[in-house]
Amino acid sequence: MSLPRPFLFSPAPSHQQRCFALSPSPNKLTVRMARSSIDEVSESGAFVRTPSAFHNFISQDPSSPFPAESGRYHLYVSFACPWACRCLAYLKIKGLDKIIGHTVVKAKWERTKDGDPHIGWVFPTSNTEEPGAEPDPINGAGSVRELYEIASTVYSGKYSVPVLWDKNLKTIVNNESSEIIRMFNSEFNGLAENAALDLYPPHLRAQIDEANGWIYDYINNGVYKCGFAKQQEPYEEAVEKLYKALDKCEQILSKQRYICGNILTETDIRLFVTLIRFDEVYAVLFKCNKRLIREYPNLFNYTKDIFQISGMSCTINMDHIKLNYYRSHPSMDPLGTIPIGPNIDYSSSHDRGRFALSK
Ligand SMILES: N[C@@H](CCC(=O)N[C@@H](CS)C(=O)NCC(=O)O)C(=O)O
């Protein structure tokens, strides 16, 4: 059974939302949809992320088009990608990995199609080709691009991960991590091993949404704004906001265990995926070097604390992270040399137990 493909993803975003190569006059637009993050640059040289396109929602309601079912959905991720790793973290800590399978792509971007210069996520051809990566067991696809092509014949955006795939309808349910984690938090609770864990509890929702807003703009996406800025001014603007936000987190974490109180929430998982990549990658490649995370006592110990939550450490593969960032962006670093350090041990002891957890 298949649904009409265009029905499944949102209409094209408005021209402010999209990332374009613009002609000199905004009245005479020559637009080119970004096919890769590195193309997502405005006229002023600032990085502007393209919105995701597939926004279907899995529901615990059995009559919904995408009902929560065991074995029906599959998550495609890269260990390099912080957005995809949010979803993988949820899969692990909610105890969903027996009912939702996942596949990890190769770390480094490669050509996705003969005769086309596009580079992106690809699958290995065997289990032994690259440690940590696996061939696509569901569709036998060679690349993530092929998954998008199966899901839609008219899609023309980025071939990004995460991809949440419906094996029944053979299509993409959703490719936006902030939505996927909400589904994983609440919609599979009839099947999850750790259903009691609620990372978006009703009484904290306003606080979580508020914190997610500035953490996304200035930290999660902020590091990309630093790294992908093509001019000095947008870079400096982004760096200043990034460090103000990190200082704010440090301050919050000097008084409580997590960002929204003494209780782990979605905000912490979203912040963690950026912090764990910061000293190893963003400080070097994205020029976020005003201060390192390991120079912030509370942020550093907090990063270790979250890394040590049961199930989290297996979502972090630093070899994939470094291989991807340092080797997949030749326009940023044509040599692709991978820095040897700093090799931080996030499993070492931390001091966050000094805060009593709230119920
Ligand atoms: N808003 C998306 C962003 C996903 C995203 O940008 N993923 C990057 C990897 S970190 C990607 O797959 N990029 C592919 C490309 O640029 O070609 C989400 O949070 O899920």
Describe the structure in brief.
By secondary structure, this protein is mainly α. 32% of the residues lie in helices and 6% in strands. Helix 1 runs antiparallel to helix 7, helix 4 runs parallel beside helix 7 and helix 6 crosses helix 8.
Helix content class: 25-40%
Q: Average pLDDT value? A: 90
What's the total helix number? 9
Strands of the widest sheet, in order across it, are: 2-1-5-6
Give a short account of the largest sheet.
4 strands, mixed
How many beta strands in the DSSP annotation?
A: 6
The termini sit apart by 46 Å
Specify the structural class: mainly alpha
Question: What's the Cα radius of gyration?
Answer: 20 Å
Site (Lowers pKa of active site Cys): 282, 325
GO molecular function: glutathione transferase activity
Protein name: Glutathionyl-hydroquinone reductase YqjG-like
Active site: 81 (nucleophile), 224 (proton donor/acceptor)
